[in-house]
Amino acid sequence: MAKIFVASPEHRWRKQVTDALVGHTTAGTEIEFAACMDAMNAADICILVLPSGPAAHAQAGYMRGEEKAVFVYDGNGGEVLPIHQMFDLVTDDIDVLLQAVEEEVAKVH
To answer: Which run of H or E residues covers position 58?
Structure first.
């Protein structure tokens, strides 16, 4: 089973994504530094849920640097910046996000 790291300080958006990822192991940003690093290192996929602040963006950047898949989900609409194009997917459609996750899971395992 793939492990997915959900980077988002916004509880309502993180909950929407994690609820949609039933059957996958997820970790969020409400954990201490060492546990957060362990979760990122163990994860296969990162989902950056917008809107997010600098910590979530740093987490997504770290995971991109580790050559892990990073998907950006803009559930609120209008939060995407040009810099987000460095990641593997940018979408405001939860179904597109879930399809990308399933495709990446198939590659990982």
So the answer is: helix 54-65
